[in-house]
Design goal:
Layout (H helix, E strand, L loop, with lengths): L12 H7 L6 H23 L7 H17 L23 E3 L9 E2 L2 H15 L1 H7 L1 E7 L2 E8 L2 E7 L5 E3 L2 H4 L17 E9 L2 H13 L8 H9 L4 H5 L4 E11 L6 H10 L9 E3 L2 H13 L8 E8 L2 H7 L9 E5 L4 E13 L4 E13 L2 E7 L3 H7 L6 E5 L7 E5 L34 E2 L7 H11 L12 H9 L14 H4 L14 H13 L4 H7 L10 H8 L2 H6 L2 H5 L6 H11 L2 H12 L20 E4 L8 H9 L4 E3 L7 E4 L6 H9 L3 E2 L1 H8 L5 H11 L1
Parallel strand pairs: 2-11, 18-19, 18-20, 20-21
Antiparallel strand pairs: 1-6, 3-9, 3-10, 4-5, 4-7, 7-8, 10-11, 12-13, 12-15, 13-14, 13-17, 15-16
Helix pairs in contact: 2-3, 4-5, 14-15, 18-19, 26-27
This protein binds nicotinamide-adenine-dinucleotide and zinc ion.
Enzyme class: ligase
Keywords: DNA damage, DNA repair, DNA replication, Ligase, Magnesium, Manganese, Metal-binding, NAD, Zinc
Protein name: DNA ligase
Amino acid sequence: MSQTPDQTPELSEETARAAAGAEPTAEARQRHAELSEAIDQARWRYYVLDQPTMSDAEFDKTLRELESLEAEFPGLRTPDSPTQKVGPPPSSTFAAVQHPQRLLSLDNAFSAEELDRWAQRAIRELGQQQIEKSGFLCELKIDGLAIDLVYEGGKLVRAATRGDGRVGEDVTDNVKTIKPIPQWLTGDDLPALLEVRGEVFLSVESFEKLNESLVADGKAPFANPRNSAAGSLRQKDPRITASRNLGFIAHGIGAVEGFEADRLSQVYDGLARWGLPVSSHTKLCTTLDEVWDYIGYFGEHRHSVEHELDGVVIKLDQRTVQDQLGSTSRAPRWAIAYKYPPEEVNTKLLDIKVNVGRTGRVTPYGEMEPVVVAGSTVGFATLHNASEVKRKGVLIGDTIVLRKAGDVIPEIVGPVVELRDGSETEFEMPTHCPACGTELRPEQEGDADIRCPNTRSCPAQLRERLFHLAGRSALDIEMLGGQAAGALLDNELLTDEGDLFDLDADKLVQAELFRTKAGNLTANARKLLDNLDEAKQRPLDRFLIALSIRHLGPGVAPDLADAFGDIDKIAAADVEALTEVEGVGPTLAQAIVDWFAVDWHRDIVTKWKAAGVQMVAEERELGEQTLAGLTFVVTGTISGYTRDSAAEAITSRGGKVSGSVSKKTAYVVVGESPGSKYDKAVSLKVPVLDAEGFEVLLNAGPDAASEVARIGEDA
Ligand SMILES: NC(=O)c1ccc[n+]([C@@H]2O[C@H](COP(=O)([O-])OP(=O)(O)OC[C@H]3O[C@@H](n4cnc5c(N)ncnc54)[C@H](O)[C@@H]3O)[C@@H](O)[C@H]2O)c1
Ligand SMILES: [Zn+2]
């Protein structure tokens, strides 16, 4: 039942060769001492103080270097080397307890080759068949701290941290406050003794809340959810632990009496039966290909899991196989942790600067020493606003923890307070706009954001608006990029975007960017003028987006354009009329009204019109099937249509034409002079359409059916 760790370290071929001779050089000894010292230090800070100063990636790299040094010079691999240890001895804050059975760490695989090497070694030792019969139990590697629970006769009698693997810290009182950990197991087949191993963790959400309140109380925030879980558990006062919303998942057992199971997966079934939380994400795989699928899947869905995870643990499921493979002094040979690329790294916060956005919002952002995180190089991260900077507690010059979770934008998590040397300085939000010098202020009292109120001519805002206006979803002006916008502003060719369509060759040639050496327009400048000409023809919805009206985006612009038809009607509409359009709420409606209430905004529209811009709604492209499911009776003639052309307009849109009116299906199109079918329709209360109604219907697009229903209500 038990796996006894032996003391034989795994020897690679290289190591074996090295073992044959090589005395460690003085240089190697020196490096070994440095690395060992660094690792011991890091482990102390990480496991005992819960305040690491190294990132996990750095730590792993350092440990790797030490391992390969020892592979080259096995004489350096003494029993007290950090490579042979699981962690530091327990701190004096808690009573020391001996674990019934040793707790081990896990070996890591950082690449496909390393994982494959692990599997091949097991296959070599026990044979393909036996490994396949065992299967690979794939689990998520929960990013928390290891805990050892001892149940006697179903009662929780002791809980301890991992410590150095043999002796841990007694945290029973604290663990008793963790809700998901049962103090009593339930069931009629409870083992006399059960040592449960598992992970205590904090969800990302709880972690963020906790850090927020720590900073608010003037305390140092935790670097990541793992450290915050450890810090929350390892409290002198269990009441603090109780307040931290810690989670728990079991992922193994140690000593046990009165329970037998052939497979680890069956052990988990037992634990679950007795009321211990086990992971719902565990999967038994037969082949390495399946293991890879599992790794790939959770690599992508890493952030939809209830806890943080830093990899996948692959375990051989059959317990006899586990016993046969045994363990090294540090880790079992029957399991391996495949690590995902780190999403958290440490870097230096060089400066905090501010950016002035399209709506004048002034946003601080961190400028950092560029680092690779989650596969891309990151040098900047937004800090949102001044109170966010305070909340995170970062100072300029700090070493900070930078996090980039998948596709999510990079985020500064917090400072590594221990690494401060006193030279760090506090960020001060500027009082005046860095772009135009205007005094900054919140738009409304109590807003967290402050803005540059010089909306019209602040070059930073104007530049952002030009960017936005030239974008694909707005006017799609390809040649109006950052450089061109800069040149237009620097040469004062625009007071605001109202002058955009008045740009011509004479104006552009004044800017160096648009001028050849011979003093002619460059090809790009000519293209810009062509772009502008084309842009004049864009439909109203695209212009609505281009105006930078707050809350007005591509989602609602087409509906607004359709409902009003041209820009003047929108400018004249009040909140009530605007909110009648689907998707337009009171906030957007008010923003539209406010926008048109500003003189220079209205001037933009006037100037654009004078330059030949139309700003009318696009003719709807009618889908083939818009009238599908509807039946029509055509009677008389409708102005602009003959019976035949009206029937054709209906059938070409998927509608049916019928000879008789019936209450259920017929929708009637009438001419100027009511006839018998018209009377019948009226008596049956079937919708009746006149020439105008017919047009509306044909142009109703996908909403034809509801349009008819609406007319039907009137009839
Ligand atoms: N930043 C630092 O200064 C620093 C210092 C020390 C350690 N560390 C980090 O801590 C980790 C090393 O610590 P470690 O020795 O605990 O090794 P580990 O975290 O790589 O793996 C072993 C641990 O994984 C945990 N685990 C989570 N899910 C599991 C599952 N499903 N099955 C089995 N075990 C599971 C167990 O608690 C086990 O003890 C590395 O990520 C390292 O970077 C960082
Ligand atoms: Zn400004």
